[in-house]
Design brief:
CATH superfamily of the largest domain: Tetracycline Repressor, domain 2
Strand content: under 5%
Largest sheet: none
Number of strands: 0
Number of helices: 9
Helix content: over 70%
Radius of gyration: 20 Å
Distance between the termini: 76 Å
CATH architecture of the largest domain: Orthogonal Bundle
Structural class: mainly alpha
């Protein structure tokens, strides 16, 4: 083994260990929530000592924040925002909604864990909650950009209203599937939601020109 290969192997091992820890944290938090997640439980799940976890993450809150960040990056890539510029506005918004739904089925941890934290209020706000609100704002900004592109006749107030409605509806559909399980066709529900968003956009546009 050469001297040059040793640092590379150590870095590779470090990356692999970090991913194992994050995967374990996702599994534990998905079952037990934020309060039920502990370094000891993550250690038992991933098979690495607690000292290894603390080498990568300062504490549980730092670990959960990293889980949300990684899951958000995975989701954002899979969601294909803002969508390809082909088809009518209805076709484009429907296709984008279907992509978002599929990405949430494949990588739900960002929204699942984030909503758990967002709905809880503590005297000291967990970093994971702060991170979720930050990345959620990034997603909302991207959706706002899509709304401006697809519905250029809307003013900024209407665009903000439409974005809020779209995000809130998506939250509700995701929570509904979390409650009722895989019997809920999230893609079909998101496509219907997109059609309602498109209808709402037309009504807002008509109201502004009335």
């Amino acid at each position: 083994m050469t001297r040059a290969s040793t640092p590379r192997r150590k870095r590779a091992n470090g990356v692999e260990s970090r991913q194992r820890i994050l995967d374990a944290a996702v599994a534990i938090a998905g079952e037990r929530g934020y309060e039920g997640t502990s370094i000891a439980a993550v250690s038992a799940k991933c098979g690495l000592p607690a000292s290894s976890i603390y080498w990568h993450f300062k504490d549980k809150d730092d670990l959960i924040a990293a889980v949300i960040e990684r899951s958000f990056e995975t989701w954002l890539t899979a969601a294909a925002l803002p969508g390809e510029a082909v088809g009518t506005p209805l076709e484009r918004v429907t296709a984008m909604a279907a992509d978002v739904a599929r990405s949430l089925v494949d990588a739900p941890d960002f929204l699942r864990l984030g909503l758990m934290l967002a709905l809880e209020h503590r005297p000291t706000e967990p970093r994971g909650r702060t991170v979720f609100l930050q990345v959620r704002d990034i997603a909302s900004q991207k959706i706002t950009e899509v709304m401006r592109t697809l519905f250029p006749d809307l003013d900024e107030a209407a665009v903000r209203t439409l974005t809020t409605y779209a995000v809130a509806g998506a939250d509700g559909l995701f929570v509904h599937r979390e409650i009722h399980g895989e019997d809920v066709d999230l893609v079909a529900m998101f496509e219907l939601h997109a059609q309602l968003v498109h209808e709402a956009a037309n009504r807002l546009a008509a109201r502004s020109t009335a």
